[in-house]
């Protein structure tokens, strides 16, 4: 016998650099993390890419960079939109605000026989480049029902 077939599409994760205009839909009341940039540096024309991800139905989260002082995640139309957080020391940052990297962890289900199964959950947090390598803003992005 071959590999067991997955019954439904695997939850998709999208990674790209420039944030989509939809990142403008968040206010302090509906996201986790910080929004410190004066605006979202997205394209001036909406390409429809977000709506395409929604219509595809399998994308559960999208991760972007570009705006180094934003590190928030918010859910819009069933998709978590997340900033990575400013990580490198070669670009702009902000004094007193630790560089940070977003970590994404995908947990798989395991059968009683020990075989790995489909995706059970997707979690995220940020790791700060401070004295204690602090973990902050842990959250579940997606859970299998």
TrEMBL record:
Which SUPFAM superfamilies does its entry note?
Metallo-dependent phosphatases
According to its record, what are the GO cellular component terms? cytoplasm
Q: Which domain of life is it from?
A: Eukaryota
- GO MF annotation, one: hydrolase activity, acting on ester bonds
Q: Where are the transmembrane segments?
A: none
Q: Which PANTHER family match?
A: CALCINEURIN-LIKE PHOSPHOESTERASE DOMAIN-CONTAINING PROTEIN (PTHR32440:SF23), PHOSPHATASE DCR2-RELATED-RELATED (PTHR32440)
* Protein name per Swiss-Prot or TrEMBL: Calcineurin-like phosphoesterase domain-containing protein
Q: Which organism is it from?
A: Aegilops tauschii subsp. strangulata (Goatgrass)
């Amino acid at each position: 016998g071959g590999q067991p077939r997955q019954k439904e599409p695997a939850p998709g994760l999208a990674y790209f650099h420039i944030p989509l205009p939809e990142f403008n839909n968040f206010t302090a009341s509906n996201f986790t993390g910080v929004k410190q940039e004066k605006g979202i540096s997205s394209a001036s024309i909406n390409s429809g890419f977000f709506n395409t991800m929604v219509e595809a139905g399998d994308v559960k989260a999208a991760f972007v960079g570009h705006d180094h002082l934003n590190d928030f995640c918010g859910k819009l139309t069933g998709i978590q939109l997340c900033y990575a957080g400013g990580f490198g020391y070669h670009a702009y940052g902000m004094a007193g605000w630790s560089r940070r990297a977003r970590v994404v962890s995908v947990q798989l289900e395991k059968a009683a026989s020990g075989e790995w199964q489909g995706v059970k959950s997707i979690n995220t947090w940020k790791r700060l480049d401070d004295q204690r390598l602090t973990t902050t803003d842990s959250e579940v992005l997606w859970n299998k029902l």
